[in-house]
Write a structure and sequence with these properties.
53% of the residues lie in helices and 10% in strands. By secondary structure, the chain is of the alpha+beta class. The chain has a domain at 110-261. The strands form three sheets. Strands 1, 2, 3, 4 and 6 form a five-stranded antiparallel sheet that branches. A four-stranded mixed sheet has the order 5-10-9-7, covered by helices on one side. A two-stranded antiparallel sheet has the order 8-11. The longest helix is centred in the C-terminal third of the chain and has 28 residues, at 470-497.
């Protein structure tokens, strides 16, 4: 086999002239093409020379007719930050379908390249595996953005039982590669801040926003944090029989997580399931990963911050397995109260309630006049008969950020990303699932369970899992006739605009 002379490879400037990233941006987002293209090129050209050379060698070995999407996915496999971005975007229906399918390869991958290092690396971290009662069960079964997954058998000396498990093991040198890339990401944010007017994009402090993403992704390579999150998640979902979180085994390090092996398949691989089972699974995802973080007791609640389809499995008995807890974040009681107020305000068409709740979520100032325009605009679709759901909430938060210049805490920025990711995952599991109906049913169920304790609670107290006071509920009941008339007139206006009546209403 001939050895390629790397001196003959083009540099990034020549390479990018032959690779037009702009074709990956949908026509309706044409305005953002220069930003996307310049951001990707800046990222690639800022990589250390030795890493850039490796990528260029791989690109040169791809088929001549390889598409831009195929080439970008190949690059993402070598760049953990791009790999993670690809996983997050893989179900985003704003992207072309062919590109989404390519990105979905990044959700769960077979290991690429030599994996002979795995056994030695495990024993450097854990000592002799045989002394732990552990034997590897074949080759690694999956590769993630920063780690490989290795199956094993463990004979527990405590009860003598043999348990099946997996090691999540960081790739060699991944910490350095991720650090390099996240510093580049921070630089892209600074570049966008400098060139907002050139690109004609909203001025929203991109460097700070990208820094929040950078800080979150740093946690990917601290597996001791994931082990802490796994224990918390096991406890949080212990009373939900339809949800399973892997059990942590006692031999872990900051670079190795040992946990229970759960059999099943990715939640979006639903071809063999009936339409009803698919809908139930999608509803379960909504309840476990959206409703639960919003409506849960305590001073704060934590949530899974990386729920792409590769981290969600359905077991043979139709349970939802939630994997990979390296990225998690928290909602405070105040956050939960304000999110509940937004959803109640949307359901009751109460513009003032939504505006005040968004102001309560925002850190620092917000343009209230612009915010009122945003809320009124978003309520238009609700007046047309639609319930407020995941898409509506993310659209509202985006508009409040861009048009009303609202600044939200890092945790809310992450939660917004979670909502956007799950919106695509849920749709790919079942088109018939209605996340808005699931959220409404979850809230009604909570309210019914809270009724006995409300009789002895102060009317303004929100010390309930629903985060709604009795005064909120009274207001809701008293407003119901007005709400019904608003919906009625809104629906009539919508039908008239769509010319479905055939005559003026």
């Amino acid at each position: 086999m001939d050895v390629m002379n790397t001196d003959d490879l083009p540099d990034w400037v020549t390479f990018r002239q032959a690779l037009d990233f702009s074709e990956l941006v949908p026509p309706e987002y044409e305005h953002f093409r220069p930003v996307v293209v310049d951001g990707l090129n800046h990222f690639l050209e800022s990589l250390p020379p030795e890493r850039a050379a490796d990528i260029l060698v791989e690109q040169a070995l791809l088929a001549e007719d390889a598409s831009v999407g195929e080439r970008l996915v190949a690059i993402a496999r070598r760049c953990p930050a791009l790999h993670k971005l690809g996983q997050v975007m893989a179900r985003d229906r704003r992207l072309p379908e062919h590109f989404r399918r390519l990105l979905q390869q990044l959700e769960t991958m077979k290991p690429a390249g030599d994996v002979k290092w795995v056994h030695g690396e495990l024993e450097r971290e854990l000592g002799k595996l045989s002394s732990l009662g552990v034997s590897l069960e074949g080759e690694p079964i999956a590769e993630a953005s920063v780690a490989v997954v290795v199956p094993f058998l463990w004979r527990d000396s405590g009860d003598g039982k043999t348990r099946r498990g997996v090691f999540k093991l960081l790739k060699p040198g991944i910490e350095q590669r991720l650090h390099e890339e996240l510093e580049i990401v921070r630089g892209i944010g600074a570049l966008l801040d400098e060139r907002c007017r050139h690109y004609a994009i909203p001025e929203i402090d991109y460097e700070s926003t990208f820094a929040q993403v950078r800080d979150l992704l740093y946690h990917e390579v601290h597996l001791d944090r994931e082990q802490y999150h796994l224990r918390m998640a096991r406890e949080a979902y212990a009373r939900e029989p339809s949800v399973i979180v892997p059990e942590i085994y006692p031999f872990c390090t900051p670079r190795v997580t040992a946990m229970q092996r759960i059999d099943g398949h990715k939640v979006t691989e639903v071809e063999a399931m009936s339409a009803e089972d698919r809908r139930r699974l999608a509803d379960l995802i909504t309840g476990a990963l959206i409703a639960r973080p919003i409506w849960s007791p305590g001073p704060e609640t934590f949530f899974h911050a990386d729920p792409h389809a590769g981290n969600l499995m359905v077991t043979d008995d139709r349970r939802l397995a939630i994997l990979d807890w390296s990225l998690a974040d928290y909602l405070s009681k105040s956050d939960q109260v304000q999110l509940s107020q937004i959803l109640i305000g949307a359901a009751t068409l109460d513009e003032h309630r939504i505006v005040e709740a968004v102001k309560g979520l925002a850190e620092g100032g917000i343009d209230e006049q612009s915010l009122r325009r945003v809320v009124n605009d978003k309520l238009t679709v609700i007046r047309g008969g639609r319930l407020p759901g995941v898409g509506w909430l993310t659209d509202l938060m985006d508009a409040a950020l861009i048009e009303a210049r609202g600044h939200f805490g890092p945790n809310l920025a992450v939660f917004r990303k979670v909502l956007q990711t799950l919106k695509g995952v849920i749709a790919d599991v079942s088109e018939e699932s209605r996340a808005d109906a699931v959220l409404a049913a979850s809230l009604v169920s909570l309210l019914s369970m809270e009724m006995p304790s409300r009789s002895i609670a102060p009317p303004l107290s929100r010390a309930f899992t629903s985060h709604l006071s009795t005064a909120d509920l009274v207001h809701l009941l008293m407003s119901s006739p007005l709400i019904a008339s608003r919906y009625w007139f809104g629906l009539r206006e919508k039908l008239y605009r769509e010319d479905l009546h055939g005559a003026d209403p």
